[in-house]
Hints:
The structure holds 2 protein chains of 2 kinds. Chain A is mainly alpha-helical. Helices cover 40% and strands 0% of the residues of chain A. Chains A and B meet through helix 1 and helix 2 of A and helix 1, helix 2, helix 3, helix 4 and helix 5 of B.
Amino acid sequence: xxxxxxxxxxxxxxxxxxxxxxxxxxxxxxxxxxxxxxxxxxxxxxxxxxxxxxxxxxxxxxxxxxxxxxxxxxxxxxxxxx
Amino acid sequence: xxxxxxxxxxxxxxxxxxxxxxxxxxxxxxxxxxxxxxxxxxxxxxxxxxxxxxxxxxxxxxxxxxxxxxxxxxxxxxxxxxxxxxxxxxxxxxxxxxxxxxxxxxxxxxxxxxxxxxxxxxxxxxxxxxxxxxxxxxxxxxx
Lengths: 82, 143
């Protein structure tokens, strides 16, 4: 059995869309999806997505942040930063 | 022995698993295609229908995937939840703002997934999400 070519195109489109929806682009321009028959294009797409993944937003899992809600910056005191 | 543990999986960790899985999927696909395989062969999938019942579930269900074993609705719910832009109480609202740098294709895909989950009651949503998180946690070796 094999998956039909049209269905394959659909899966590829969906995968690219899910990466975008999951924030891999992080504000960068969306990449055009490669053709289903274009191995080089798929490679370039995967490499760029991997690069964006590695340089993307920090996953905030299990990170505790210092509570800075009561810190008053100079600007708020009317002094400015300079 | 029946495992009664209820593993939990955070939204952020699910998103991390999903991003890594999809990039690996694309990389593997390319590596097989440059060996001369067709997409059908390289995708390591088997299906006998051009009209797949559910692209999301199908795409996430490769062997060794942490998302294998999810039902179609569970696959959509866990993806939507992982985007961090989805609230079960706001399922009919827009997922993206005009300021988001997101392609029209992605807007269409997420909107379609939301439409396909709107029939769930609140209780059903919570049950499906709990089951989905448990499936992924077990697959990922967290439970």
